[in-house]
């Protein structure tokens, strides 16, 4: 299998597509498995990571997280909705600063899949709301 194809698989091709491509080149099952392992190792964006910081929801359908690495867009009004948005609990009950009706910001840790190129969150695995003091005390975070 050519290196160009392997690079294009990262995040764009499914496992079934990889196996079909391997079969088209008459690879053995062992060879196909080795190619899949290499592709998955080359795709760090497929792994969940834990990111903690200020989670903002200033207006309907606008969400982002600001952590020590910067701003991570979660969702913009009219844009795509990442998988796992339903994993965000109701953050407005405790530890939430209202800036616009029920909308505002809080402090949270999220297990997410990110796209570093676009600085966006593609999939949300879980969200744990934290006390506001936790983010306020973190010197690596800018003020909300």
UniProtKB/TrEMBL annotation:
Lineage top rank: taxon: Bacteria
Pfam families membership: DUF4087 (PF13316)
Protein name: DUF4087 domain-containing protein
Native species: Roseomonas fluvialis
